[in-house]
Amino acid sequence: MFQGLPQPIEDILRVLEYWDHILAGFLTTMELYGGAIVMGFFLGLLLALLRQYGGFILSRIATGYIEFIRGTPLLAQLFFIYFLPYSMNAILEAQGLSPIPIGKWSFQTEIIILDRIITYTIFDHRILVGLLTLGLNSAAYQAEYIRGAIKSVGTGQLLAAQSLGMSRLASIRHVVLPQALRRVIPAWSNEAAYLPKYTVVVFFIGVVDLFGKAHFIVAQIFRTLTTYCIIALIFLALISIVSKVLDFVHKRTSIPGV
Amino acid sequence: MLRVVDGWKSYGDLQVLKGVYFEVGEQEVKVIFGPSGSGKSTLLRCINMLDPLDKGEVYLREQNLMAPGVNLNAIRARIGMVFQHFNLFAHLKAIDNVSIGLRQVKKLPKEVARAKALEMLNRVKMAEWVDHYPAQLSGGQQQRVGIARALSMEPDVILFDEPTSALDPELIGEVLQVMLDIAKSGTTMIVVTHEMGFAKAVASEMLFLDNGVIVERGTPQHFFVSPKSERVKHFLKQLDILYGSHKELLKQSNEEESK
Amino acid sequence: MVETPDLPSIFFYILVNGLPLTLLLTALGLLGGFLLGLSLAIMRVYGGKDLGLVSNGYEKVLRGIPLLVLIYIFVFGIPGIFWFIEPLMRPLFGVILALGLRSGAYQSQLFRGAILSVDPGQMMAARALGMSQFQAFRHIVLPQALRLAIPSWSNEYAVVIKDSSYAYAVGIIEMLKVAFRVSANYPLLWAPTMGVVAILYFLFTYPITRIFGERQTKKLEKLGMGGG
């Protein structure tokens, strides 16, 4: 069908024949991305608050967690969490206890677009592990950005709020956090925009995300370079768009001097 | 020895220099003063071509610096500059600050450069501080090193851009002392400053620059005894207040009281 | 019954067998990134509009592609790129190339920031002495910029050594791969071994970033360098 076209164009078109697979992979990537960002934000916020305002013990635990996660490779963290049930089962079996069921469960659905039927895995145990790891990982990085923003608000604000009679908790909640959350937007946008890059790591535990689909396509048509380049471009486009959107949001929500 | 002929300079819409004529002869000391924003610093940077004029000429020993094909780096080696904020090289000790120009620009061997640098630092009375970093020196000390750095290149003329404006009052004296010394020893200097005492002591001519134009020029005597233009008179009165003799203020408040 | 290795011996096994390649990947990747990044930064600061656009464009592209994809492109997509190297060694160079190109993009921004935070008065004073722009940059701006860059650069080192773990995917015997091998037969040890290798990485990242991050910043403040 594509006989008369120059080789590169022909290659690209052959890859794009698999647009339904690419779409499915993209959806999985977005799922992981969205889940990781949200989980990372709330956990990161908690960690930042604990590190900044927690007592002696809590702040040290938070700090330890943050520094350890940031100082170790994401891949090692992923494998650790993935293997945890297996290792725990080995211990349990050695003790003669019954193992934890590592259910290979999954929720799938069928999406029909144009003339293609896409079998899409919404959730399975691997995606859960991936999501968890990415969330825990992102939380450590987001915690540092948030903490930096909290520190930049300055202790004067907290003192002023408390001098009005507000409790420490209320001061943090109503005075420091609103300012900190606005200040963190640039740095946070950085993390948010580039997070999709890191979701590819789930490939190693068998989740078929955009990168996984690239492998599938290569196995079908052997156009290695073209396929990976197209996948790379999709990531690039995704990241650029997210970046621009966040920039726009930043401009719209800025308060002078905050 | 150095001449600026019909100098014009603007930054965007703002005309900073509007037809400046200016010259300084061998061993002369010229003092330029005037309100801020009048273009004094700009004029200095135009002279050593760091920020060239839009229109006009600059002649150093009759060589036109604005002509194409002039080796500006070599020219700048012959024009020294001392900055308001010292601009000492933060990562180098005092001795290296002074010798680096000799090594890199004049290509002198290391020992010769070092010896000359020591000599210069001695001259500005910084001999005990040669191995200190700028951050370890007071403002006055840093500026003296800056002067030594300029002197070491043995330039035809040294430009001083408000050399004492960024200094605490107690430190101004030591720098002015050094400047007086080198003026008396025959260095050709162009100094932008408000230090009228210095001007009175060594200036061969003073120029009042206001709004990009040289409004009045003359000997120190001329300015302090009978300045012509109103703007100059007003400015000198402001300086009087700044430097504390407060003659005018006292006169006015006495007049108020006696009413 | 096969004797199960204990964690300390696993630790040393991974250290001895995996660390060399991990360090090699990291060192060469960082070196490539340094040369590339510094050049791009200089292009962007001193090079004028067109060069600046090239530099900026490169940064944007390389930061927007996952490292794993980049590695696969160089190892499986363009195997011919290393025609002069024997086939067994090619994946290694592919990974180093990917690491270097990626790091170059990040170091470019790093050095650009450092160069720009050197006090502009320094350049002015150097030019006033008669130094050419090149001389002024080389002797006055660059030494200070490099010192200012140290905290961020130590961070980049940590990133690259962690990223070297992706080389596992193409069969290179770095620390993560060794960790897999040594625990392959002992499900009991799968998770703990990952923990051990994580600790190993941590030992090579945290002390460095701690020392060259905070303390260096304090030392710089004492010397009074930077934008003032």
Strand and helix map with partners:
The complex is a heterotrimer of chains A (258), B (259) and C (228).
Chain A: H1 7-16, H2 19-53, H3 56-70, H4 74-94, E1 106-113, E2 116-124, H5 125-153, H6 155-163, H7 168-183, H8 185-199, H9 210-221, H10 224-252
Antiparallel strand pairs in A: 1-2
Helix pairs in contact in A: 2-3, 2-5, 2-8, 2-9, 3-5, 4-5, 5-7, 5-8, 6-7, 8-10, 9-10
Chain B: E1 2-11, E2 14-24, E3 29-33, H1 40-47, E4 55-60, E5 63-64, H2 72-78, E6 79-82, H3 94-104, H4 110-123, H5 139-152, E7 157-161, H6 169-184, E8 189-192, H7 196-202, E9 205-210, E10 213-218, H8 220-225, H9 230-243, H10 247-257
Parallel strand pairs in B: 3-8, 3-9, 6-7, 7-8
Antiparallel strand pairs in B: 1-2, 1-4, 4-5, 9-10
Chain C: H1 7-46, H2 48-63, H3 67-77, H4 90-116, H5 120-129, H6 133-163, H7 175-183, H8 187-223
Helix pairs in contact in C: 1-2, 1-4, 1-6, 1-7, 1-8, 2-4, 3-4, 4-6, 5-6, 6-8, 7-8
Q: How would you explain this protein's 3D organization?
A:
The complex is a heterotrimer of chains A (258), B (259) and C (228). Chain A has 258 residues and is mainly alpha-helical. Chain A has a domain at 30-208: MetI-like fold (Orthogonal Bundle), CATH 1.10.3720.10. Chain A has helices at residues 7-16, 19-53, 56-70, 74-94, 125-153, 155-163, 168-183, 185-199, 210-221, 224-252; strands at 106-113, 116-124. In chain A, a hairpin with a 2-residue loop joins strand 1 and strand 2 (116-124). The longest helix of chain A has 35 residues, at 19-53. The mean pLDDT of chain A is 87. Chain B has helices spanning 40-47, 72-78, 94-104, 110-123, 139-152, 169-184, 196-202, 220-225, 230-243, 247-257; strands at residues 2-11, 14-24, 29-33, 55-60, 63-64, 79-82, 157-161, 189-192, 205-210, 213-218. Helices cover 42% and strands 23% of the residues of chain B. In chain B, the strands form 2 sheets. Chain B has a 6-stranded mixed beta sheet with strand order 6-7-8-3-9-10, sandwiched between helices. A 4-stranded antiparallel beta sheet of chain B has the order 2-1-4-5, with helices on one face. By secondary structure, chain B is an alpha/beta fold. The termini of chain B are far apart. Chain C has helices at 7-46, 48-63, 67-77, 90-116, 120-129, 133-163, 175-183, 187-223. The radius of gyration of chain C is 21 Å and the shape is globular. The model of chain C has no long low-confidence stretch (mean pLDDT 89). Chains in contact: A-C, B-C. The B-C interface holds B 48, 50, 73-81, 83, 85, 87-91, 100-101, 104-105, 133-135, 146, 149, 153 and C 119, 121-122, 124-132, 135, 139-140, 143-144, 147, 222-225.
